[in-house]
Each structure stands twice: as structure tokens, then as C-alpha cells.
Design a protein that fits this description.
Layout (H helix, E strand, L loop, with lengths): L2 H9 L6 E4 L1 H10 L5 E3 L7 H11 L5 E6 H5 L3 H9 L4 E7 L2 E2 L5 E2 L8 H8 L3 E5 L2 H13 L4 E6 L10 H4 L2 H13 L1
Parallel strand pairs: 1-2, 1-3, 3-4, 4-8, 7-8
Antiparallel strand pairs: 5-6
């Protein structure tokens, strides 16, 4: 499935949720669904789920969706144990698996096609985990997944899809952080 199509599907389910997105999923999401509750943490490779866990613990009455990459999560697999142990029932961890470090030169991810992230998540104590290879099966399942308490991992086998601009200036700006801070304080 194309990543942009998966994100368009997710957009239909995101209301007052916090979204923590990194790297290309972040750039795509900012174009597809610009909103003040987008927490941008690009540059924190491997840290998306750690940031998401902190937000999920601080805001237990709000869903936190983490949009992570396969290469990114490989850099911090230990965080999965922390998320499971913390019992983050409001955390939904999406892995956009394309087998490469797309933003960093399209270098292959170690273990491409071998690593089973859903199985790792379950082994660490996540409440449930799923893997989707087609957009239609993902569309049919996402509502039920988001209605079931987490922590949950949702692995999406993706291809890039439409190319969106990589707005590094915005994601590293004080403006992006202030928008998020203001939005989280209001609710």
C-alpha cells in the first residue's frame, strides 16, 4: 500500500488525538493533515515511541498515535518494553515499513523482510499487534483497532506514494512547538 493512502485513511479516524510522527511519515502527515496536535519530533530517530509514551502517560484520556518507521524503531527496540510495562492503553504505534531509511538516502534497513515487528511488540507485552499489506484490509480494520485499548502496534507494509515536501524549517521551529503546546493546554 502507498504510505500517503494509509495516512489518508488514518486522517478519517484522527479527531482530538495527539499524533507523534517522524521522518517521511511526518512530512507526509503535515501535508495531509495539518493540525496543532501534531507533535513533530523528526531528528529524534528511534525516539518517536518514547515521546509518544510520555504524552500518553501525561494525557491518559486522549489517544496518542505514533507514526514511526521500521529503521527508526530498530534504533530503540527497548522502548517497546517500557511502553508495555507502563500499560499505555491510549497508545497506538504505527510502523511504516518500507525496508529503507528513506529520508537519509534510501539505504536499506537491517533485517529487511525478516524482522517481524508485530511479533516483537507482542513479545514485549503490547496488548495487540497487527500487520497489513493491503490498504483495503487496513481500512476494514483500523476502526476496531483504535477502539480497542492499547498499547497496540500496527505494522503497515508501504511504498512511498506521492512525494511531499520535506519542510525541515517548520519541524525544527519554535512555531511548531508553540502551536502544539498551546493546543495541548487548551484541551
Amino acid at each position: 500500500m502507498r504510505r500517503d493512502h494509509a495516512l489518508e485513511t488514518l486522517k478519517l479516524h484522527v479527531k482530538d488525538d495527539i499524533v507523534v510522527a517522524v521522518y517521511q511519515a511526518c512530512f507526509d502527515w503535515l501535508e495531509i493533515c495539518p493540525r496543532d496536535l501534531n507533535y513533530v519530533s523528526t531528528g529524534a530517530m528511534g525516539q518517536a515511541v518514547s515521546h509518544g509514551m510520555g504524552l500518553a502517560l501525561a494525557r491518559p484520556n486522549r489517544r496518542v498515535l505514533v507514526f514511526d518507521g521500521d529503521g527508526s524503531i530498530l534504533m530503540n527496540l527497548g522502548a517497546l518494553v517500557s511502553v508495555a510495562e507502563a500499560g499505555c492503553k491510549n497508545l497506538y504505534h504505527f510502523i511504516f515499513s518500507n525496508g529503507e531509511y528513506e529520508v537519509n538516502g534510501r539505504h536499506p534497513v537491517p533485517g529487511k523482510g525478516v524482522v517481524d515487528f508485530a511479533a516483537i511488540a507482542l513479545a514485549t507485552g503490547y496488548a495487540h499487534a497487527s500487520r497489513f499489506k493491503t490498504l483495503n484490509t487496513f481500512k476494514d480494520s483500523i476502526g476496531a483497532i483504535l477502539a480497542t485499548p492499547g498499547p497496540a502496534m500496527i505494522v503497515l507494509d508501504v511504498t512511498p506514494g506521492e512525494t511531499f515536501r520535506r519542510n525541515y524549517e517548520y519541524i525544527h521551529s519554535a512555531e511548531a512547538r508553540e502551536k502544539f503546546r498551546s493546543a495541548i493546554r487548551k484541551r
